[in-house]
Amino acid sequence: MAKAVGDSGFFEFQRQLTYKARWYGMRLIIVPRFFPSSKGCVRCGHMNSNLTLATQWFICARCGFTADRNLNASYNLAWVAAS
User: Fold this and answer.
1) pLDDT tens sequence across 39-57
2) List of residues 6+ apart from 21 with CB closer than 8 A
3) Helices (H), 24-68
4) What Rg do the C-alpha atoms of the chain give, in angstroms?
5) Strand partners, 66
6) What whole-number distance in Å separates Cα of residue 40 and Cα of residue 35?
7) What are the two backbone dihedrals, phi and then psi, of residue 13, each rounded to the nearest 5 degrees?
8) What burial class does residue 25 get, using C-beta atoms within 10 Å of its C-beta: 0-12 exposed, 13-18 middle, 19+ buried?
9) Which of 21, 38, 69, 73 has the smallest number of CB atoms closer than 10 Å to its CB?
10) Alpha-carbon distance 31 to 38, whole Å?
């Protein structure tokens, strides 16, 4: 039951956000829930599937790119939005 209540809260938030985006003529991009935004390298696209939630830094094994994990995730989400 708690999962259903929690999911409905996010559904309502998404519904309101969609409504407001249309109202103001904005484009809203909804990324899938399990999109691995913090596990992919924004430079080369390599996926670091071993990354845990406790890991604060993203270090790419292929190209050596290093960034704060959340910053890397935001870059990946911006890339999705620009596509």
Assistant:
1) 999 999 999 988 888 999 9
2) 27, 28
3) none
4) 16
5) 59
6) 10
7) -60, -45
8) exposed
9) 21
10) 13
Which portions of the chain are predicted below pLDDT 50?
none
Estimate to the nearest angstrom the gap between the alpha carbon of 29 and the chain centroid: 11
CA–CA dist 80, 17 (Å, integer)? 18
Token pair 């670091």 is at which residue?
A: 48
| pLDDT for the residue numbered 4 | 61
Residue 68 has, within 13 A of its CA and on its CB side, a CA count of: 3
pTM score of the predicted model: 0.74
State how far the alpha carbon of 36 is from the alpha carbons of 7, 16, 46, 71, 75, in Å. 20, 25, 11, 13, 12
What is the model's pLDDT at position 19? 96
The pLDDT value recorded for residue 5 is 57
* 45, 39 contact by CB (below 8 A): no
